[in-house]
Amino acid sequence: MILTPEYVFRRIESITPEFLAQHGITALVLDVDNTLTADGSQVLDDSVRQWLDTMRAAGVSLTIVSNNTDKRVRPFAQRVGLAYVPLACKPFSPGLRVARRRLGVAKSRMAMVGDQIFTDRLAAGLYGIPCLFLLPRTPHDKNRVVRFKRKFEPYWLSKFYRNGGKIYE
């Protein structure tokens, strides 16, 4: 099902270069809020900074794709040294198409990393790439629409678990 995650990770730091290599993934498209950092935050945890360094050292191409505005995403992306696509229109694919073109990779070699089923997971599914779904970094979402959508996510996560899915720690 297009909304049921293929993979679920406790946090972004649980994604390893070995996992990516096993799945033929050489490029990651990253969400920002509740994926790389807390919702609305410009602060990057040291563990996420180390994870980014590990991915770069392993040759994994990285870029940010966010539904947020340039004003929100640019300072964060510049601080962490990543290219970015703001106003990505997830769950639709324009932002993912731009990211793939910039990364210069085949669709079969990239994956979406994000914390929302109705934006990140759905965007990946509609575009035809896997989603490495994350549990949110914090339980706090500032956006009312996101808070509303979160109420429906447990159904899709329970389908993942019923189908034998496990959380990568």
How would you portray this structure in words?
The model has no long low-confidence stretch (mean pLDDT 94). By secondary structure, this protein is an alpha/beta fold. The chain contains seven helices and seven strands; from the N terminus they run βαβαβαβαβαβααβ. It has a single domain (7-168), classed as HAD superfamily/HAD-like (Rossmann fold), CATH 3.40.50.1000.
Task: Summarize this structure briefly.
By secondary structure, the protein is of the alpha/beta class. The chain has 7 helices and 7 strands. It is 40% helix and 15% strand.
Biggest sheet features: 7 strands, parallel
Given helix and strand content, the structural type is alpha/beta
The count of strands amounts to: 7
Give the SSE string.
Answer: EHEHEHEHEHEHHE
The number of domains is 1
- General form: globular
What's the CATH class, please? Alpha Beta
Order of the strands making up the biggest sheet: 4-3-2-5-6-1-7
Tally of contiguous helical segments = 7
Mean pLDDT: 94
Which band does the percent of strand residues land in?
15-25%
CATH superfamily: HAD superfamily/HAD-like
Proportion in helices: 25-40%
Gyration radius, in Å: 15 Å
CATH-scheme architecture: 3-Layer(aba) Sandwich
Could you name the CATH topology? Rossmann fold
Stretches with pLDDT under 50, minimum 5 residues: none
Q: Any key phrases for this structure?
A:
40% helix, seven-stranded parallel β-sheet, alpha/beta, Rossmann fold, 169 residues, 15% strand
How is the secondary structure organized here?
Blueprint: E1 7-9, H1 17-22, E2 27-30, H2 46-57, E3 61-65, H3 70-80, E4 83-85, H4 94-103, E5 110-114, H5 117-127, E6 131-134, H6 144-150, H7 153-162, E7 167-168
Parallel strand pairs: 1-6, 1-7, 2-3, 2-5, 3-4, 5-6
